[in-house]
Design brief:
By secondary structure, the chain is of the alpha+beta class. The chain has a single domain (3-135, 147-170), classed as Electron Transport, Fmn-binding Protein, Chain A (Pnp Oxidase, Chain A, Roll), CATH 2.30.110. It has helices at residues 10-18, 62-69, 101-110, 149-156, 159-170, and strands at residues 3-5, 21-26, 34-39, 43-47, 50-56, 72-78, 86-97, 119-133. Strands 1, 2, 3, 4, 5, 6, 7 and 8 form an eight-stranded antiparallel beta sheet that branches. β2 (21-26) and β3 form a beta hairpin. It is globular. The protein starts with a strand and ends in a 16-residue tail after the last helix. The model has no long low-confidence stretch (mean pLDDT 94).
């Protein structure tokens, strides 16, 4: 039932482009495993073996800490509408923090230089294995729309200045005490 590929083939790319949500998974030795949901509106397919997503400020930054410590990362998509399927992208990730040259280049080339309120980093995954599986156990869901909660929360932090203070306070280490590598002056 599972099929493996060395790259994102056109049919796999089309599947990714139809999805509205994906999940990132990461871990580091001695740390908790982290799984986070993300909206596909901020995901870009850079080439057949590389994807990136623009990551917004959150209550923690486990992915950044795990990628700094270990690098391994899995991105998973599930078909909640239409034919069943699960797609996993296995590989290694890197965080490019807001204010860095790599962040600016990626933002310009792949995100039209549009930086949503609360943007903190762009995560790039270099893919070494693509795997599809049946997805027969994934339930069907009806998409109702995007939430405005994140934007309202970010505005309530006092705009970018307040968000920078929040990131310095909450995003410089993981819940297990691992450093995220986030610069303190972003």
């Amino acid at each position: 039932m599972a099929k493996q590929y060395q790259r994102i083939e056109p049919r796999i790319r089309a599947f990714i482009e139809r999805q509205r949500i994906f999940f990132t998974g990461s871990a580091a030795e001695g740390a908790r495993v982290n799984i986070s949901p993300r909206g596909t509106d901020l995901l870009r397919i850079l080439n057949e073996n590389r994807v990136a997503y623009l990551d917004l400020t959150g209550s923690g930054s486990e992915t950044a800490a795990h990628l700094k410590a270990d690098g391994r990362m899995t991105i998973m998509f599930c078909a909640f509408e239409g034919p069943p399927q699960i797609l996993r992208l296995y590989g290694h990730g890197t965080c490019h923090f807001r204010g860095s040259a790599a962040y600016a280049e990626l933002l310009a080339e792949w995100f039209g230089n549009e930086q949503p309120l609360g943007a903190r980093q762009i995560v790039v995954q270099d893919i070494d294995l693509v795997q599809t599986s049946c997805g027969f156990g994934v339930p069907l869901f009806d998409y109702q729309g995007e939430r405005d909660s994140m934007e309202r929360w970010a505005l309530g932090q006092g705009g970018e200045e307040g968000l920078e203070a929040y990131r310095r306070r909450e995003n410089v280490q993981s819940i297990d005490g691992l450093p995220t590598g986030m610069p303190l002056d972003q």
